[in-house]
Amino acid sequence: MQMTEVTYADAIPIDSYGTGFFRIGGEVIKGGAIIHAKGARSWAGYEDVDAVLALKDEIDFILMGTGANMAPVQSAFRQTLEAAGIGVEPMASPSACRTYNVLVSEGRRVAAVMSPVEEAAKE
Predict the structure, then answer these.
(1) What CA–CA distance (Å, rounded) separates 120 from 123?
(2) Which of 27, 35, 59, 78 has the greatest number of CB atoms lying within 10 Å of its CB?
(3) In the chain, how many domains are there?
(4) What is the pTM of this model?
């Protein structure tokens, strides 16, 4: 099998994630994160919609990482982004990390808006 090295000429990849954090371009962001071709920053949750809207001229859609499992995106958040022309694709955060890396390696205009994966509840 031939292996091909993935390059990210115009983007910063998501290196890894863990309980409560994302590692992006070698830097750790604790809690939620917004990742796009030009950088990454912390994300305070659905009330931080302006941070996503600021990217509207640079992206076509966002991958919405909803944590350990796929969950519905808050309706007002989705409607605000879609009214600005930004599509929203929800998925579990682990899947969003992988999908984001594939799409940016292809040069797609995408951002990932991620809720962290939290530790599983202990009984």
Answers:
(1) 9
(2) 35
(3) 1
(4) 0.88
pLDDT of residue 119: 64
Q: Which residues contact 116 (CB under 8 A, 6 or more apart)?
A: 17, 19, 20, 21, 22, 30, 31, 32, 33, 67, 93
Q: How far apart are CA 123 and CA 105, in angstroms?
A: 41
> Residue 2 domain-assigned?
no
7 within domain boundaries: no
From CA 92, how far away is CA 109, in angstroms rounded? 20
Note whether 100 and 3 are within 8 A (CB). no
| CATH number assigned to the domain comprising residue 92 | 3.40.1230.10
**Has residue 68 been placed in a domain?**
yes
pLDDT of residue 65: 97
